[in-house]
Design a protein that fits this description.
mainly alpha, single chain, 15 helices, Vanadium-containing Chloroperoxidase, domain 2, two-stranded antiparallel sheet
């Protein structure tokens, strides 16, 4: 499928917001990026410690984690995978800059001999974090590390890099050991008023991440730092307008949704953080970013994702707004004459197991667009694939366009109102800008 321009004023407006945010981020990050993307070892003077190597090692460990989380039964059901991405890439980045000393670390740096190799440190940190997080995968992870290190000559540089990677990974894992991520969530008890979140069809399964807003953020001061204001009441005209849009466009048998919108609704239905990590991999390869820049990119991106997830779950369970499928099926109980109920209404895509507001896809996509535009500029040649529609490839010319489409997809899928999508974009952009500024990039 070739991406077509969407003639939606709202989409253009959101794109403008993201571009503005991205321009601000670009102004902050560009000085370090310019230095970081110089791959000429002679100019950098860092050939000996491996810091001028390509970012292939970072991408390889990202791909391995992606493979792990996509393997059924591997990811703990009560631990969000963005936490693993953040720990992996924070460790890789801090290991690299512990040796290069070209930029401040995320959390800490460790003493490193001058001969230590940054590429070895990156590989070791990636290995050690994933083995700790997914011990059943140790054999495969050991093999990947051995293959990477086999290409590097034995000696003090290799040994020193390995020790740095081990030390950073151990310290970071210890710091996150009591972050609240393993706490057992309390049973969810739905409210009984119109607008209160209810379990959704077809299986009416209880939500899982009800307590994820209590997890300690990686960078944010607290989970509610950028919490959006309350959504319009279910009796308001604004809510009726937003719900009626989903009722029309998001129904499984909709006659108002176009074929392209149907494909979009299904294309983005998978775990959105995985899709954006794949987009980031493609971008890093296309721009030939070196080791340190690639490590920085994936660290900023995934720390933003992890904190965005903590932030949007905080907001979701603070407001506990029901999903469109519940609102449409029981609309006659809302007291809003502008909404006509349809007890048989079914969305194009099964509804996710959490409240409507804000929309997670919009949060993560605004976040990703802001970070990637900060590194590469908003205008870029972008390629995306889907976990849900294998073989379908979409292309775009700006990161804001990708984010806009991903947000719209949740309306076409019947999962979110425009109100939730708008709030999601604002939250994601705010988190990304804060992470970028706080990390000093």
């Amino acid at each position: 499928m070739k991406k077509k321009k969407l003639s939606l004023i709202w989409a253009a407006a959101i794109g403008i917001v993201l571009v503005i945010g991205s321009v601000v981020a670009t102004l902050v990050i560009s000085p370090l990026l310019t230095a970081g993307t110089n791959n000429n070892a002679a100019e950098n003077g860092n050939a000996a410690n491996g810091s001028s190597a390509s970012g292939a090692i970072v991408i390889a460990w990202n791909k391995e984690l992606l493979h792990i989380v996509l393997t059924p039964g591997t990811q703990p059901t009560t631990v969000h995978p963005t936490r693993s991405y953040a720990i992996l890439h924070a460790a890789i980045y801090d290991a690299v800059v512990s040796i290069t000393r070209d930029a401040p670390p995320f959390l800490f740096s460790v003493n490193a001999p001058s001969t230590a190799r940054a590429d070895v440190a990156a590989a070791q940190a990636g290995h050690d974090t994933l083995v700790a997080l997914y011990p059943k995968w140790k054999a495969a992870l050991d093999q990947q590390l051995a293959s990477e290190l086999a290409t590097i000559q034995d000696g003090a540089g290799k040994q020193g890099g390995s020790q740095v990677g081990q030390a950073v990974a151990a310290r970071l894992l210890a710091m996150r050991a009591n972050d609240g991520s393993v706490a057992t969530p309390p049973p969810f008890v739905p409210g009984n008023q119109p607008g209160n979140y209810q379990l959704t069809p077809p299986k009416f399964v209880a939500p899982v991440f009800t307590n994820w807003g209590n997890v300690t953020p990686f960078v944010l001061n607290n989970a509610a730092q950028f919490r959006p204001g309350p959504p319009p009441t279910v009796t308001s005209q604004a809510y009726a307008q937003a719900l009626n849009e989903v009722k029309s466009l998001g129904q499984n048998t909709s006659t108002t949704r176009t074929h392209e919108q149907t494909v979009i609704g299904k294309f983005w239905a998978g775990p959105i953080w995985n899709t954006w990590n794949e987009i980031a991999e493609n971008a890093a390869l296309a721009h030939h970013t070196n080791l340190e820049t690639t490590a920085r990119l994936f660290s900023v991106l995934n720390l933003s994702f992890a904190d965005s997830v903590i932030a949007f779950y905080d907001a979701k369970y603070h407001y506990q707004l029901w999903r469109p499928v519940t609102a449409i099926r029981t609309a006659n109980t809302t007291g809003n004459p502008a909404i006509v109920g349809d007890p048989a209404w079914t969305p194009l895509v099964a509804t996710a197991l959490d409240p409507d507001y804000p929309a997670a896809h919009a949060v993560i996509s605004a976040d990703a667009a802001t970070v990637l535009a900060a590194f590469f500029g908003n205008k870029d040649q972008i390629r995306a694939t889907s976990d849900v529609l294998p073989g379908v490839v979409t292309t775009y010319t700006s990161y804001s366009d990708v984010a806009t489409e991903a947000g719209l997809s949740r309306i076409y899928a019947g999962n979110h109102t425009r109100i939730a999508v708008d709030a999601g974009y604002t939250l994601g952009n705010n988190v990304a800008q804060f992470v970028i500024s706080d990390l000093g990039v």
